[in-house]
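quick q for whoever's on today - can somebody do inverse folding on this one?? i tried earlier but teh output was garbage lol. tokens:
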């Protein structure tokens, strides 16, 4: 076997999913190995524990409980009771933990009464140790915050009510 052929075999092995190759030609024998198996095991290990936490079952009742008292308090005025259902829902694009602030010592991204434009960051959702900035889908005024800070949220769960501008 020629040196150039061996180089081509090494390159083919590096470009493929094969981790070991043995070739025998008469009395000549060559074995080429890579450590790709070790790398794949390391990559797949973190994904299993991340999928195990199934805490999002609890957030729906937790999120609904704080939302109900907020609706009941201003519901004494008929004008505010009408404004709550008329807002457009800003929904969670993923499962994770909802945060109103970028860090505990920073101010909230938005509060009730703030005017937002489409694309403004209104909260963060942490998913698998990654912090994802959630942007407003609409121009308008924040009329209701439906989720408590640091609460788990589901995909599609309403986070805010935004009164279109």
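ok took a stab at it. sequence:
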């Amino acid at each position: 076997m020629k040196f150039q052929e061996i180089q081509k075999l090494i390159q083919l092995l590096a470009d493929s999913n094969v981790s070991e190759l043995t070739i025998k030609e008469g009395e000549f024998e060559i074995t080429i190995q890579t450590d790709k198996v070790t790398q794949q095991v390391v990559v797949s290990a973190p994904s299993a524990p991340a999928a195990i936490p199934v805490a999002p079952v609890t957030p729906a009742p937790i999120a609904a409980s704080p939302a109900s008292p907020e609706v009941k308090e201003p519901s004494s005025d008929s004008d505010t009771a009408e404004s709550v259902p008329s807002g457009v829902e800003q929904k969670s694009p993923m499962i994770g933990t909802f945060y109103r602030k970028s860090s505990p010592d920073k101010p909230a991204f938005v509060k009730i009464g703030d005017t937002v434009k489409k694309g403004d960051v209104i909260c963060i959702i942490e998913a698998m140790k990654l912090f994802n900035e959630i942007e407003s889908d609409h121009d308008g005024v924040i009329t209701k915050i439906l989720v408590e800070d640091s609460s788990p949220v589901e995909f599609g769960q309403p986070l805010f009510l935004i009164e279109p501008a």
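fwiw Helices lie at 3-15, 36-51, 59-72, 78-86. also The radius of gyration is 27 Å. so keep that in mind when u check it
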